[in-house]
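Reposting from the mailing list since nobody answered there.

I have sequence plus structure tokens for a pair of proteins and want to know whether others read the tokens the same way I do. The first protein:
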Amino acid sequence: MPGEHLIQKSELALQAGLAFLQYRRKGGTEDERQHEAGQLLALCRQYQTPLIINDDLELAMAIDADGVHLGQSDGSLKEARQRLGNDKIIGTTCHDSLQLAEQAIQDGASYIAFGRFFPSNTKPGASPAPLSLLTEARARFDCPIVAIGGINLDNARQVTEMGADFVAVVHTVFASDQPDQQVYRLQHTLNKVESA
């Protein structure tokens, strides 16, 4: 997604009450990523929403983002915690492994993410995880749990009913011409779970 559209869509999603915004860009130059991330950080500050940088500890530190999300091959979580301190948010992807989650918590993770639970446009080749994993993780861990992978308006409620505290959505919000409306719809769907 070109930078200008990313910023515009992010602002609409933030206006709608997005809980967190994660910046994930695999291409582009370091300067381009730093510029975009800086613009997003300014927006997030305006809307009092944490900005998490995906897979790039150095970028998170350079712009003083609120945190970083690390995949299993993106460096040491323990080292990231030492470098960022205790006030920053650090999350990690645990795929379908409770053992990875346990290690992540010991290493200082603020939250753990599991998935993919459904076919995903962002990571089409990711291995599937069973929904029951969320229930097992909820019984075992006190930290926030994020469900990732193919989450949309039709299945978001399923993962929160199984134990997820948050859902990570990309395509559902950012492929839409009305990202704010998609965020509102997700909130409405998820609020049904809380009031049930």
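The second protein, same order (residues first, tokens after):
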Amino acid sequence: LAIRWLESGRGVVPMPFHELVATLLPEGPLRDAIGQLLAAKQGSAELAWGPRVPALSDWIAAELARLESGPLLESTAKPDPALLDRTFRDWLES
């Protein structure tokens, strides 16, 4: 979900997971599965295991396959250091 947040150009990814879910996932089986998993995790020890959640596993597999083709984010262009070099030299000479 964090990758989707960045891809959509929303800026810094929020830390609260529920914000990602509420903003990026429409109502439906995946969102319901995440809600059920979070409720189960809140009521169990951190190391507790549970059965595989098909809707969630399928979504994760699909996202990984989608992302295998390469980054979908625009790469940031590296600035030309000449302007900074010139500014620094001017500062040293003054």
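Reply #1 (J.P.):
I read it the same way you do. The CA atoms of residues 1 and 24 lie 7 Å apart.
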